[in-house]
């Protein structure tokens, strides 16, 4: 089934679309203090650097950063106006505009905080069973998923309980990437394993305690687990889909509409901070800042190696290097691409979190605001906002699928592993 969606320009007529950079000579909103919530992760680097290295101050802004403990807290505190802006999971604005979750307050994003940073880590106990089941040395992410399928089959035949895996939030890139990896190996994430929510800083301890058998989370917590000797990294975000959207800056559309100049100045500051974070010569200084107790509170040497994409896969010395594990600015990594919002919506459909309709697809699109990005920065990528994903060399999905944003129901229905009622939720007259 093919459904024609509105163009990104027309999408700008969705809620809050009147936002734009202020005209020259417009009345200034003056210096502002913005309260911003964040979770202790390396992908908060751009926001933290903007606050600490003067990029916000140059634009007449002060960022009051508040370290929070969970994504649900961040969502609620933004909704209840305790935060002006927030470090958020890329699916959170989409979920909010679709009315999903326990407190779906409208949220938009005009700026992505970059690409990369996630990985999947399994307990050393579970990985040892995969070795016994024939996992070869140097196996890639897909091979690991297929071997795990064999281990799960054996556990089921022996009457063992399925493993419990942690992810950070139901509407998160971690949830969708973990599910994508499992499903690519023939594992049904709703039937063959148990998925639970674990806040990022607690994942390593939960793995060590045996409360979970694996997790998908952002840096540096995967490498913290591997270097403690409690986990083995089996897949990185780049293995699943290199361009998968990650963290964004979220804000309420009514706040953005009433502070258009502040939004523009904020994006200019974040853009400059992202450029700075991308430069390798700045990574020592960035790592030292992130390691502080008020930010990530993790060993500085681990953060520095994560920034370089240098992984300790476990505590035996086996290593892997992913040169672009983090991209903070290059290749328009900060652009809120509408096709990414629709891919996120497709995963919500695939796993039974949402129903299909063209109207809901438009709501998903309204969460991402490239018009605000272009108005503030005067630039943007040359290719279409609604483009096919997974078609270019170096940016393919691990299972070989491609995503056409104009044929979302067909895309979801083609997956052999998906939520069992998804197929029945689509109709030709939707």
Automatic annotation (TrEMBL):
Keywords annotated in UniProt: Cell inner membrane, Cell membrane, Membrane, Signal, Transport
Lineage top rank: taxon: Bacteria
Signal peptide: 1-20
GO cellular component: endomembrane system
Subcellular location: Endomembrane system
Protein name as annotated: ABC transporter substrate-binding protein
């Amino acid at each position: 089934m093919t459904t024609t969606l509105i163009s990104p320009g027309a999408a700008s007529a969705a809620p809050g679309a009147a936002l734009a950079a202020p005209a020259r000579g417009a009345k200034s909103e003056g210096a502002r203090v913005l309260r911003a919530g964040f979770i202790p992760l390396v992908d908060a680097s751009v926001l933290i650097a903007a606050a600490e290295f003067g990029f916000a101050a140059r634009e007449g802004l002060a960022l009051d950063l508040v370290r929070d403990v969970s994504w649900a807290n961040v969502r609620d505190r933004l909704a209840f106006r305790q935060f002006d802006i927030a470090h958020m999971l890329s699916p959170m604005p989409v979920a909010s505009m679709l009315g999903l979750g326990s407190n779906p307050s409208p949220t938009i994003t005009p700026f992505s905080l970059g690409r990369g940073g996630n990985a999947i880590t399994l307990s050393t106990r579970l990985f040892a069973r995969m070795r016994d089941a024939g996992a070869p040395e140097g196996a890639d992410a897909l091979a690991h998923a297929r071997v795990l399928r064999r281990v799960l089959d054996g556990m089921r035949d022996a009457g063992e309980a399925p493993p419990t895996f942690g992810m950070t939030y139901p509407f998160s890139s971690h949830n969708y990437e973990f599910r994508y990896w499992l499903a690519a190996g023939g594992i049904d994430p709703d039937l063959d394993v148990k998925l639970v929510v674990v806040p990022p800083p607690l994942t390593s301890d939960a793995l060590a305690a045996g409360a979970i058998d694996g997790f998908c989370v952002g840096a540096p917590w995967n490498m913290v687990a591997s270097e403690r000797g409690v986990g083995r990294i089996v897949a990185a975000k780049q293995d699943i889909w290199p361009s998968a959207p990650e963290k964004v800056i979220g804000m309420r559309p009514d706040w953005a509409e009433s502070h258009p100049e502040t939004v523009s100045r904020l994006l200019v500051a974040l853009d400059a901070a992202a450029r700075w974070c991308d430069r390798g010569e700045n990574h020592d200084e960035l790592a030292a800042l992130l390691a502080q107790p008020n930010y990530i509170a993790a060993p500085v040497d681990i953060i520095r190696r994560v920034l370089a994409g240098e992984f300790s896969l476990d505590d035996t010395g086996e290593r892997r290097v992913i040169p672009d594990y983090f991209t903070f600015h290059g290749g328009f990594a900060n652009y809120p691409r509408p096709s990414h919002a629709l891919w996120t919506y497709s995963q919500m459909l695939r796993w039974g979190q949402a129903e299909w309709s063209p109207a809901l697809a438009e709501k998903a699109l309204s969460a991402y605001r490239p018009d605000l990005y272009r108005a503030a920065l005067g630039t943007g990528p040359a290719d279409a906002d609604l483009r096919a994903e997974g078609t270019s060399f170096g940016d393919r999905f691990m299972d070989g699928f491609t995503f056409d944003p104009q044929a979302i129901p067909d895309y979801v229905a083609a997956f052999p592993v998906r939520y069992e009622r998804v197929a029945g939720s689509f109709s030709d007259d939707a």
